Amino acid sequence: MLLQLDFLKYRSALQIKVIEGKQKIFDPVRKKFVVMTPEELLRQLTLQYLLQGMQYPINRVRSEIGIEVNGMPRRCDIVVFDQDVRPWLLVECKSPKVPVDQGVMSQAVRYNTALGVPFVAITNGLQTYCCGIDYAAHDWHFLEDFPEWGKKPGLSGSE
Fold first, then answer.
1. pLDDT tens digits along 31-58
2. Fewest CB atoms less than 10 Å from the CB: which of 42, 64, 104, 157?
3. Domain 7-142 is of which CATH architecture?
């Protein structure tokens, strides 16, 4: 299910500066300015949606965290942790020029083998998908939005 989200409504929360001749954007999670690329801009808009729109606690959100997949180092765009500080939501952000296709989905699935989160989201800013995973039932379903923070996955389909 394609989510109908307006990340751009959070653009006023972004801090953008030119530092040492490069356009940079402030990451409130990493607490520093980082080089602004199309993917980074989307990551920051998505973070603002999670923090402001969904009211996720900032102390449970991490951006650009390192993981190991099949012995190779990788970076997840956004990982949200639950109340017990276990990985709970994985969000992969792509440039708007990159279509959300099977390759992007496969990347998120590979990353999730290292994390085992109950919720996975993928966005390029134009297309956003989020799904809940029920490991016990070996099933998953699309959500209508990002999950309410702390919510346990269920398969009612009406999250």
1. 999 999 999 999 999 999 999 999 999 9
2. 157
3. Alpha-Beta Complex (3.90)
